[in-house]
């Protein structure tokens, strides 16, 4: 006699996503769709910069001073294949923007990822332990929050540049920026997770698990942490755009990425020097790329915040 079969068909994760309210909410939100498509195009093109960029901006041998200061191709004096023109070193602006976007996106991504890891850990420990541990961790976070994030990042970057040998500064510039942005960003995640953990630990299912001698790390990882992911996901999405802006600000001020490995902020700083000499394209296109990138992230983040808010359902 054969075993009874389950009449309900099993669906995969992708099928469940397409049938979910979240997916329908996304498709009905025009701003989210535009933002997601734009963000996908910008990220993919930036990550594929070594493949699709006409010029390797990290290779000095690819630069040609004979083709320096060329305007975009649709302006008189422009030449193919320099679609967006060149700078004073003969560097192709389109290639520089793609490589610069790659640096900015990777720095912002790893900064948010590291901030999440630190904030989740500290928030879970503070909310679970309570008492003096909670007070010490949160007061340290309050001290960091009392200082503007840009000042914290500038301090960390400046100190790192003094400690790191000059030969290694260009190589470690990205890691220093990630550390600087992380130090000023982890507190917001820790506060969110700490508040959620303090609420969840008093609920009956957590009390029952503790009576059954379930290890605290298992309760935190399998029961409490999943209940904190919704607000954390929204905060991380919006923070991604802010991390990219913070990196661009630091690079614009000269304490970020070096000219040899430019980010969008570095390109804007270098192009700003030639703005009043008539070479507007050197600074305009990095500014447009940075603006589109942050706008796309914010459009997706705003939709996600509204879609995951139970009060708006």
Automatic annotation (TrEMBL):
<keyword id="KW-0472">Membrane</keyword>
<keyword id="KW-1133">Transmembrane helix</keyword>
<protein>
    <submittedName>
        <fullName>ABC transporter permease</fullName>
    </submittedName>
</protein>
<comment type="similarity">
    <text>Belongs to the binding-protein-dependent transport system permease family.</text>
</comment>
<keyword id="KW-0812">Transmembrane</keyword>
<keyword id="KW-1003">Cell membrane</keyword>
<dbReference type="InterPro" id="IPR000515">
    <property type="entry name" value="MetI-like"/>
</dbReference>
<dbReference type="Pfam" id="PF00528">
    <property type="entry name" value="BPD_transp_1"/>
</dbReference>
<feature type="transmembrane region" description="Helical">
    <location>
        <begin position="105"/>
        <end position="131"/>
    </location>
</feature>
<dbReference type="InterPro" id="IPR050366">
    <property type="entry name" value="BP-dependent_transpt_permease"/>
</dbReference>
<feature type="transmembrane region" description="Helical">
    <location>
        <begin position="171"/>
        <end position="193"/>
    </location>
</feature>
<feature type="transmembrane region" description="Helical">
    <location>
        <begin position="278"/>
        <end position="304"/>
    </location>
</feature>
<keyword id="KW-0813">Transport</keyword>
<dbReference type="Pfam" id="PF12911">
    <property type="entry name" value="OppC_N"/>
</dbReference>
<feature type="domain" description="ABC transmembrane type-1">
    <location>
        <begin position="101"/>
        <end position="301"/>
    </location>
</feature>
<feature type="transmembrane region" description="Helical">
    <location>
        <begin position="232"/>
        <end position="258"/>
    </location>
</feature>
<feature type="transmembrane region" description="Helical">
    <location>
        <begin position="143"/>
        <end position="165"/>
    </location>
</feature>
<dbReference type="InterPro" id="IPR025966">
    <property type="entry name" value="OppC_N"/>
</dbReference>
<dbReference type="GO" id="GO:0005886">
    <property type="term" value="C:plasma membrane"/>
</dbReference>
<feature type="transmembrane region" description="Helical">
    <location>
        <begin position="32"/>
        <end position="53"/>
    </location>
</feature>
<dbReference type="GO" id="GO:0055085">
    <property type="term" value="P:transmembrane transport"/>
</dbReference>
<dbReference type="InterPro" id="IPR035906">
    <property type="entry name" value="MetI-like_sf"/>
</dbReference>
